[in-house]
Amino acid sequence: MMVEITQAKSDTDLQGILALQRKNLAVNLSPEEVADQGFVTVVHHLDILRRMNDAGAHTIAKDGNLVVGYALTMLPSFRTEIPVLMSMFDRLDDMQWNGKSLQDTAYFVMGQVCVAKEYRGQGVFDGLYHGLKNFNANRFELVVTEISRRNTRSLRAHERFGFDIMQEFTDEENGEEWVIVCCALK
Questions:
Q1: Interacting residues of 172 by C-beta distance below 8 A, sequence separation 6+
Q2: Is the dihedral angle over the CA atoms 46, 49, 52, 58 positive or is it negative?
Q3: Which pLDDT does position 36 carry in this prediction?
Q4: Which carries the bigger pLDDT value, residue 161 or residue 60?
Q5: Regarding beta strands 142-148 and 96-97, do their DSSP bridges make them parallel or antiparallel, or are they unpaired?
Q6: Alpha-carbon distance 158 to 155, whole Å?
Q7: CB-based contacts of 2, cutoff 8 Å, min separation 6
Q8: How are beta strands 96-97 and 59-63 bridged, if at all?
Q9: Which helix (H) or strand (E) holds 121?
Q10: What are the percentages of helix, strand and coil residues in the chain, rounded to 5?
């Protein structure tokens, strides 16, 4: 297995991201898989994924032509494009990093990270984040993401990679507990 970390360059790459996303949506997994393997929450569509990629290329892991992992780049300018994420952006507007407002910080949201089940535990997650950092360090200071407290596999992986907790909160509508984490790119 030879996995290459690169950036999404074509609609075929984007469709590969969407296929992997569908397989790992919490609604498509058993409760045991959700607890043990982690999951993704937000459903993207090709149009928004393409526009997000044009603004800041997504980082992908490929085995040949197969997308086996991805880390999405989502600039704050896309805050209204995915309604379920608007509350996160509202929270980010009120947060600070290194003594300055996030609104005055060059940051992006890692919109979702996912590794195909067969490729987990092989360094693909770390490869994706190293790629994400390397591809974006000349343009941004910080990457931020939001993780469900139930997604213990993802929380552990982000902590291991060096993400710091910025805020924890409970969604008042559905009781879901979330953790906002960040990692400096430089």
A1: none
A2: negative
A3: 67
A4: 60
A5: unpaired
A6: 5
A7: 63, 64
A8: unpaired
A9: none
A10: 40, 30, 30
Residues 67, 23: Cα–Cα separation, whole Å: 12
pLDDT recorded at residue 91: 94
Q: What is the mean pLDDT of residues 70-85?
A: 90
CA distance 184 to 63: 28
| Ordered domains of the chain (ranges, CATH) | 3-184 (3.40.630.30)
Model pTM greater than 0.85? Answer: yes
The angle, 0 to 180 degrees and rounded to 10, between the axes of the packed helices 46-55 and 11-24 is 120
pLDDT per residue as tens digits for the range 110-160: 988 899 999 988 999 899 999 999 999 999 999 999 998 988 888 988 898
CA distance 51 to 81: 10
Among candidate residues 18, 89, 8, 12, the one with its CA nearest the CA of residue 54: 8
CA 157 to CA 6: how far, in whole Å? 20
Q: Which residues contact 143 (CB under 8 A, 6 or more apart)?
A: 107, 108, 109, 110, 132, 133, 136, 182, 183, 185
